[in-house]
TrEMBL record:
Transmembrane segments: none annotated. Coiled coil: none annotated. It comes from the Eukaryota. Keywords: Hydrolase, Nuclease. PROSITE patterns: B302_SPRY (PS50188). GO terms for biological process: alternative mRNA splicing, via spliceosome. This is Dead-box-1. GO terms for molecular function: ATP binding; nuclease activity; RNA binding. It comes from Papilio xuthus. The keyword Ligase does not apply.
Length: 269
């Protein structure tokens, strides 16, 4: 077909397809090249997800799944995750779409991760339990900080910090020792956002995000942070094993696309 490099629409679509996202593409030419480029990838992705569902997971996938990444399965259907699990995107202009990480922390310690806004849009990041809605901050089990300069929990949105947007780096901090959740913006501490109830300190909290026509990337500590975490905080990837739990949501029951409806399953990363 005398082509070697992907077109713009192909370059945009392929990472989303590999991440399991639902993609609708439109190109001017109509020559069929985009279809020829993407259909084999779709077939491979479908076969791979089927193997995961049937327990035929490859060593490579198992290795990826044991790392701190965004979950390919604990997400709403219109949110796509890149193959490395460190970037997500939703192009829905109307509704919010969310995702949680493959692992969470509990009981003790103080933890930090960074979320970087990589494209314009609305976003909210923070922490949630396994039982929280994927629409972060709309129930009592999710705690978010949004780009409009609001913190949210249980559908209560209060002024907090500053508005943020493209290229801003949001540090998300969780301290079980004092029950505090706080955030930083480009290295500046914004203060305490939430205090966990004593009864909630034993819960496991996962990094979480919800987007509306936006894109964010994440660093859980496998590579150097943009900004040094505050004293006594450690990267999530350095959390003690006894304080880490895996996300148990699988592909088997991930057909519900509504934000935040819990998907229960037995899949283990």
């Amino acid at each position: 077909m005398e082509w070697t490099l992907p077109t713009d629409v192909q370059a945009e679509a392929v990472p989303l397809i590999l991440g399991g996202g639902d993609v609708l593409m439109a190109a001017e030419t109509g020559s069929g090249k985009t279809g020829a480029f993407c259909l084999p990838i779709l077939q491979i992705v479908w076969e791979t997800l089927k193997d995961i569902q049937e327990g035929k997971t490859s060593k490579v996938i198992l290795q990826t799944a044991t790392e701190w990444t965004l979950s390919f399965f604990d997400r709403t259907d219109a949110l796509a995750v890149t193959p490395d699990g460190l970037r997500c995107q939703s192009r829905d202009h109307k509704d919010w779409h969310g995702c949680r990480a493959t692992k969470g922390v509990h009981t003790k310690g103080a933890y930090y991760y960074e979320a970087i806004v990589t494209d314009e849009g609305l976003c909210r990041v923070g922490w949630s339990t396994q039982g929280a809605r994927l629409d972060l901050g709309t129930d009592r089990l999710g705690f978010g900080y949004g780009g409009t300069g609001k913190k949210s929990n249980a559908k209560q949105f209060d002024d907090y910090g500053d508005a943020y947007g493209k290229n801003d780096v949001i540090g998300c901090l969780l301290n079980f020792n004092n029950g505090e959740i706080r955030y930083t913006k480009n290295g500046e501490d914004l203060g305490i956002a939430f205090k966990l109830d004593q009864s909630r300190k034993s819960d496991c909290y996962f990094p979480a995000v919800v987007l509306k026509n936006a894109e964010m990337s994440f660093n859980f500590g496998a590579t150097p942070f943009k900004y040094t975490p505050p004293k006594d905080y450690v990267a999530l990837c350095n959390a003690p094993k006894e304080c880490v739990k895996v996300n148990v949501i699988s592909s088997v029951q991930s057909t519900d696309s509504k934000p935040g409806k819990q998907r229960s399953s037995s899949y283990h990363h």
